[in-house]
Amino acid sequence: MPEDSDWEAYKVPPTRTPVSERTTSVPNPVAFFQTVFNYVVDAPVTFVREWIERQQAKNKFYYYHQKFRRVPDLSECLEGDYLCFFEAEAQWRRDRMVDQEIVEIVRERLGACKQREGPNQFQNCAKEVELLAQVTKAYQDRYGDLGVHGNARTCLMKQKHRMMEERKAQANASQ
């Protein structure tokens, strides 16, 4: 690379004149207060915060892997045990949300299979169609016709009536 001898084309920026430092016999109060603040307030707080973060790093809690303990079913609650009723209702709501998500995931898998297979979807996605039919039938048997205001008690009564009808049909068939 040839050296540029034309200094007029690429001028060197002018140097700055140094700022004269004021030296007085009185110390700067701002610097004094900053130093006191750093040692009295900031250093202990920083130390405690880092110590807490180290302790929390040892025990990581992943909220999305939280496992709830199973509570007794509504049929196992004693009469007048309202806390048990409340816990059974909350458990039923969680189970219903999980079952809704299972149905939705199977439905999405079927849609992805249909999208992927195109015209061959009827023979290549038969397993997904059968799985969706089983899952939706199980969901409908348990939660169907409950409506938006369904709860654990109405679901239990629905299951009881279904079991009574199955026993009655079985008794009629054996006669």
TrEMBL record:
Keywords: Electron transport, Membrane, Mitochondrion, Mitochondrion inner membrane, Respiratory chain, Transport. Transmembrane segments: none annotated. It is found in: Mitochondrion inner membrane. The keyword Membrane applies. One of its GO terms (cellular component) is mitochondrial inner membrane. Pfam families: NDUFB10. The keyword Lipoprotein does not apply. It is a peripheral membrane protein. Residues 1-23 are annotated as: Disordered. PANTHER family: NADH DEHYDROGENASE [UBIQUINONE] 1 BETA SUBCOMPLEX SUBUNIT 10, NADH-UBIQUINONE OXIDOREDUCTASE PDSW SUBUNIT. Belongs to the complex I NDUFB10 subunit family. Accessory subunit that is involved in the functional assembly of the mitochondrial respiratory chain complex I. Complex I has an NADH dehydrogenase activity with ubiquinone as an immediate electron acceptor and mediates the transfer of electrons from NADH to the respiratory chain. This is NADH dehydrogenase [ubiquinone] 1 beta subcomplex subunit 10. The lineage of its organism: Eukaryota, Metazoa, Chordata, Craniata, Vertebrata.
